[in-house]
Every structure is written in structure tokens, then in C-alpha cells.
Amino acid sequence: MFSGSVSKDDLLSRFQKARILVVGDVMLDRYWFGDTYRISPEAPVPVAKIERTENRAGGAANVARNIASLGGQAVLLSVVGADDAADDLTSLMQKDGVKTHLLRDSSINTTIKLRVIARNQQLIRLDFEHSPNHEILHLAVDSFRKLLQDCDVVVLSDYGKGGLTHVTEMIDMARNAGKMVLIDPKGNDYLRYRGATMITPNRAELREVVGDWKSEDELTYKVQQLRANLRVKSILLTRSEEGLSLFGEKIEHRSTQAIEVYDVSGAGDTVIAGMALSLAANLSDSDAMSIANIAAGVVVGKVGTAVCTWNELACSLF
Ligand SMILES: Nc1ncnc2c1ncn2[C@@H]1O[C@H](COP(=O)(O)OP(=O)(O)OP(=O)(O)O)[C@@H](O)[C@H]1O
Ligand SMILES: [Mg+2]
What we know:
Blueprint: H1 8-17, E1 19-24, E2 26-39, E3 46-59, H2 60-69, E4 73-81, H3 84-95, E5 99-105, E6 112-118, E7 121-128, H4 134-148, E8 153-157, H5 167-176, E9 180-184, E10 198-199, H6 203-210, H7 216-230, E11 234-238, E12 244-247, E13 251-254, H8 267-280, H9 285-300, H10 310-317
Parallel strand pairs: 1-4, 1-8, 2-6, 4-5, 8-9, 9-10, 10-11
Antiparallel strand pairs: 2-3, 6-7, 11-12, 12-13
Helix pairs in contact: 2-8, 4-5, 8-9, 9-10
The site of magnesium ion has 3 residues, from loops.
């Protein structure tokens, strides 16, 4: 539980001073809403007449907006295409109060997940994605080196799209500069993340690297082995309806705070955002975990990839 070691005003002012550098794969979640009245004469598929469109920030961009919404300073570094989607992401981030360094690579498209929705049903999802080219990824490492100086904590948000090709180098640079590094992992090669401060897999992501577990003891054994192999300070397992577990020198659990569950998408982004901001504000791992858990509980109670505001957090905490 939250220790109450800081007052509400103190916590807000610490959050407002905290600077988090978020690096990784950004994406644009695009929604086309409409209606269908007929089947196409060209193929046995419905025809959708689009009436409204909506854009939402996804991946690392969603982590950054979660930090800003809680009152922190977020700087987002990523590679995008030279296209409309990159403009849309930039203006979304501006609106949410996130500073951006989006490097444009004209040889790729910005990652987009386009959903066509008619009568509240998803008709199709279209994914556009390309890995950034090598030159621009090197530029991203150069930008990272510069931006590192002006941040307190680094978040690396890996969605497996190639933006974190140089992740090991980035971790080393950040650790040498004395910054904590939190990673939302992807894939089965966690050796790339060696030396990080904290890794925050969900259950499926963890299973991919350590296999399944049949008991809490077996889970603990496997996670602690992984933690030792990777030389990371802690592993925070996000367990959906089972809440959160932090495996470090000590083990701590939090059960979920959600009162109602509407939409769980993006809750993992909220957890890493809450942890990073709290650690940048000099809170203990244990308090950071309580804050991340409350924020995630708020977010799953809202529709769409939502965020938790400072006021909502403060209402639960104090
Ligand atoms: N069904 C649920 N009921 C209650 N709380 C939930 C539920 N799903 C998620 N949460 C809250 O959100 C946190 C993160 O969820 P989860 O472990 O599903 O992350 P995730 O799979 O990385 O999410 P995503 O990738 O969609 O952002 C959980 O630790 C919990 O606090
Ligand atoms: Mg996740």
C-alpha cells in the first residue's frame, strides 16, 4: 500500500519536475466509423460508408501521454515516416503536452493500425508497418545521447517494430549517465535488455521467455533466475485481473484496483508510465507500484485507450 511518505502538494510538485525520456516504437491507432447498408457488387464483402474518423496515439506515444496526463514532463523520441500519420501523431502529442523528437524516414510509413468500424462492429483492421532504415536508427542513437542529459528516467517501449534495434547500446549509455531504465519488452530475446533497471512484461510476454508456470513458487523461481541472468534490478509482471507483482530483492504484489472493467487495452502503457514517473519523483519501488496500479485501475474503467489524470490519481491516493 501507499506509504503516505509525501503530501499531495509535494507529490504533484515532484511529478511536475520529473522528466521522462520515452523511446521506442510509436504507432497511430486510426478509426474509421461508418455504417453499412449493402454488400459490394465487386466481392462478397460489406460496403462501409465512412462518416467519422478518429486518431489515437499508440505504443511509446501512449506511454508518453500517460506520463503527461499524470502531471509529468514527457519527451518522446522515435522514428516515423514522412507522411500524414506522422503529422497526426505530432499534433496529438502537442495537444497532450508531450515534447516530441520524431525523426522522419521517407523510406517507411508511420506504423498505423487502421480499424474500420460499422454499427459498433470491427469490419477489418489494416496494419501498415515497416522497420526504420539503419542510417536513421543511428541518428536516433545520437539524439538519444543528447536528450539523455536532460532527463531523470528513461522508458524504452518495445513493440517489436524495429525502433529499438540499438536497445542494448541505449541501456548502456543511460546507465553510464546514472539514469534508471524501464523497459516494456517484446519477443523472446531478453538478453538485449541486460543491465536495465526494470523490465515490465505481461504474462504472455513472460511466458515467451521462461515458459509456463504451474504454481506461484515456480513463477518466482523462473523470474528470479531471469532477473539474475539479465542483471536487472527488478522485473514487474503485469498480470491483468491478477494485478501486479514486483520481483526484486523482495517480492511485492498488488491486487487490481479496477472497480469496473471496460477496456483493458493500453493498461500496460499506463503501468510503465506510472512507475517511471514515480521513480523519477524519488518514490520507493513500493510506492511507485501502488501508484502504477491505481492509474491502471482507472484506465481499464474507461472506454478506448484512455489515460489517468493527476486528479483521478490524487483522489484515490489521498
Ligand atoms: N481484466 C482486468 N481487471 C482488472 N485490472 C486489469 C485488467 N486488465 C488489466 N488490468 C490492470 O492493468 C494492468 C496491466 O494490464 P496487463 O497485464 O493486461 O498489461 P498489458 O497486457 O501489457 O496491457 P496492454 O499491452 O494492452 O497495454 C494490470 O496489472 C492491472 O492493474
Ligand atoms: Mg503491453
